[in-house]
Design a protein that fits this description.
By secondary structure, this protein is an alpha/beta fold. Helix content is 31%, strand content 16%. It binds alpha-D-glucopyranose (GLC). It comes from Alkalibacterium indicireducens. Keywords: Glycosidase, Hydrolase.
């Protein structure tokens, strides 16, 4: 059961990792070229975002052909070379399965548009309501309404994301069968990990109706049938193998459902991504707003998910960053004054928790938000939609830009900073998205800031492999209400691991309970000076420290 509990997964965003074909877009050969770098970090699995044929309206999450490679990323030979070379370094591949929707350029959608009834039933098509309003009042997650006109028919198709991402009809068994074929195709290629994109929204209600809140999430999120579909997916595909690691991306889910999705006894998934901890700087739940993050809320959410998953036998994916999130160090720390402390403290906070840590490219060298000044510098469709909406809502250009600077998904999609040469060593052509200005100081060859952070990550990865308590230990919190420190205790076979993480720039103190002080403590790892555990334990700016207690 615990075969994957010692693993660490690295996410590379192919478009921005390394370009070897001089088209300004990263490619599979670029990933292959950098395998020694990844092997040196010590990671076990490499998650790649979609590189299948796609019009790239949503950077590949609009898939036009599931079993193909988009020529911008390379060829089949490149893929075969990548997987076998990765394996020779002991690194397995995890691929992104985008099974909730296809691109409207997908053959299925095109056939449906041409009038083929079989393929029309692959999507979710409805007529207008009697009063002439859209089939339901649901909103698209990328702004606007979730329905668009289906060709020149009188029907509308559902798209929970962009208008070019049509939701598939999972109630149709033929659709499910086709999708299972896709998953099996990649498993047969030797892929050992699967990340299922927005998988908890595949089960729309049977009868689609207006939502009271005008948004609609409850009509398609975590519906009971999603669990049936995932069990079937498991049985028909990866469940036939012994060693496949799966993670479901869960939009707005609950701990209760998280347990169901990831408790091994239910034969669903190995683990899940949940996002509540990354909404603690949304003002009144609105992403496109600026608010200092709510630390107590952040801790409560991490705590609730740790505790709930221990109790229910579920498993969390642990992460701060991915291709949809602004950089966590820019968000929860001080990258100007304490770049090393910020990045190492954030890393330690999650790497020593119960679950599987994910590292998003560049966080291991302290990459930050790029702080673009110009709207044109952003490529992301969600960002452009949000800008339009904010302007319509009366927000000034300057304010909208300030918000985008903090919240855009492009913050994390900037090219990987390999060195201090032109384009940060990412490409010798103009990159598809501008490189962050700080690449001369933050890059994989920098021996100061970036190297210190990277060395720390390497140690954290190694510790997870060496110390069973990190893999299997229980979880308990200390002083949940402490205003600046997140402290927790893991326990396994009579030993404890105490982890103290300070999220602010001034010194602060936490009182260590006698029960822990009475044990034999040894300093395990920290980003400050090595010292003894004492009753009133003082932490410096963004300091983190962990002790093993016997
Ligand atoms: C997931 C992906 C995101 C994409 C969306 C729609 O949230 O991570 O990048 O835009 O799904 O596929």
């Amino acid at each position: 059961m615990s075969t994957f509990h010692d693993k660490v997964i690295y996410q590379a965003y192919p478009k921005s990792f390394k370009d070897t074909s001089s088209n300004g877009i990263g490619d599979l050969n670029g990933i292959k070229e950098k395998l020694p770098y990844l092997a040196d970090l010590g990671i076990d699995m490499l998650w790649l975002n979609p590189f299948y044929k796609s019009p790239q309206n949503d950077n590949g999450y609009d898939v036009a052909d599931y079993t193909s490679i988009d020529p911008i990323f390379g060829t089949w030979d490149d893929f075969d070379g990548l997987i076998s070379e990765a394996n020779s370094y002991g690194i397995d591949l995890m691929l992104d399965m985008v099974l909730n929707h296809t691109s409207t350029e997908h053959e299925w959608f095109q056939k449906a548009l041409a009038g083929d009834k079989k393929y029309q039933d692959y999507y979710i098509l409805r007529e207008l309501q009697e009063d002439g309003s859209l089939p339901t009042n649901w909103e698209s997650k990328f702004g606007g309404k979730a329905w668009s006109k289906f060709g020149d028919t009188d029907k509308y198709y559902l798209h929970l994301y962009d208008v070019t991402q049509a939701d598939l009809n999972w109630r149709n068994p033929e659709v499910r069968e086709e999708l299972y074929k896709v998953v099996n195709f990649w498993l047969e290629k030797g892929v050992k990990g699967l990340r299922f994109d927005v998988i908890n929204v595949i089960g729309k209600d049977e009868i689609l109706e207006d939502a009271e809140d005008g948004v609609g999430k409850s009509h398609y999120t975590d519906t009971p049938i999603v669990h049936d579909y995932i069990q079937e997916l498991n049985k028909e595909t990866f469940g036939r193998y012994e060693d496949i690691v799966t993670v479901g991306e869960m939009s707005s889910t609950t701990v209760e459902n998280g347990v169901k999705y990831s408790n091994p006894e239910r034969n669903e998934l190995s683990m899940i991504f949940s996002f509540h901890h990354l909404k603690v700087d949304y003002k009144d739940g609105e992403k496109w707003s600026i608010m200092p993050f709510d630390f107590i809320e952040l801790k409560k959410i991490l705590h609730e998910w740790q505790e709930g998953m221990v109790e229910g036998g579920g498993w969390n994916a642990l992460f701060w960053n991915n291709h949809d999130q602004p950089r966590a160090n820019s968000r929860f720390g001080d990258v100007e004054n304490y770049p090393v402390e910020t990045s190492t403290m954030l890393a330690q906070t999650i790497h020593l928790l119960r679950g599987t840590p994910y590292i998003y490219q560049g966080e291991e060298i302290g990459m930050t938000n790029p702080n673009y000044e110009d709207l044109d510098e952003y490529v992301d469709i969600e960002t452009h939609n949000a800008y339009k909406k904010m302007r319509e809502d009366g927000i000034s250009h300057d304010e909208a830009m300030a918000i985008i600077k903090e919240k855009s998904r492009d913050n994390s999609r900037t090219p990987m900073q390999w060195d201090d040469s032109k384009n940060a060593g990412f490409s010798d052509a103009e990159p598809w998205l501008k490189v962050a200005d700080n690449y001369k100081n933050i890059n994989t060859e920098n021996t100061d800031v970036s190297q210190a952070i990277r060395d720390y990550y390497k140690t954290l990865i190694r510790l997870r492999k060496d110390i069973p308590i990190i893999q299997e230990g229980s979880y308990d919190v200390l002083e949940l209400e402490h205003p600046s420190i997140f402290a927790y205790v893991r326990e396994y076979e009579g030993e404890k691991l105490l982890v103290l993480n300070h999220f602010y720039g001034e010194d602060d103190t936490i009182t260590i309970p006698d029960e822990l002080l009475n044990m034999d403590a040894s300093y395990l790892i920290g980003n400050g000076s090595e010292r003894k555990l004492e009753k009133e334990f003082k932490l410096g700016p963004y300091e983190t420290a962990a002790f093993l207690l016997k």
